[in-house]
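This week, work through this protein record:
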Amino acid sequence: MAISRLKSIVGTLLGVITGVSVIALLMSSLVLLQYLQLLISNNYYEIRTLLRQGFHPNNLIKSFWFYFIKLFAIIASIGFIAFILLKILVDHLLIAGGIALKSSLSVEAILALIISLILFAIASYWTARNGVMKWFNV
């Protein structure tokens, strides 16, 4: 009876930790979006010069967008690898303590990572587009 109660508590605790990590991932994407806005606003002169030289605004938008997609993907990959390694370690410790939980990766965690990457891609494209088009229309 005590083992099943402990399994339930550990399962709930791992679910809460997964939820907190998703929130941290979303907050890191907000920080990256703010950095993108700062980068665009601080590079006003360079963006205007490139636009005056004939660069199409879509090329500049794609440059900013791909840079931040790559950056977020690297950060998310490092976080996901760390998550897998910590999960393996925790599973080993729990099995050594006599508590056997299912050792598969949760589909929710993978979906949350994919959804956050898609949301970040949309938000970063929108931010880059608004920033560059603001200087294009001046």
Observations:
- The chain is about 85% helix and 0% strand.
- The mean pLDDT is 80.
- The CA atoms of residues 37 and 127 lie 7 Å apart.
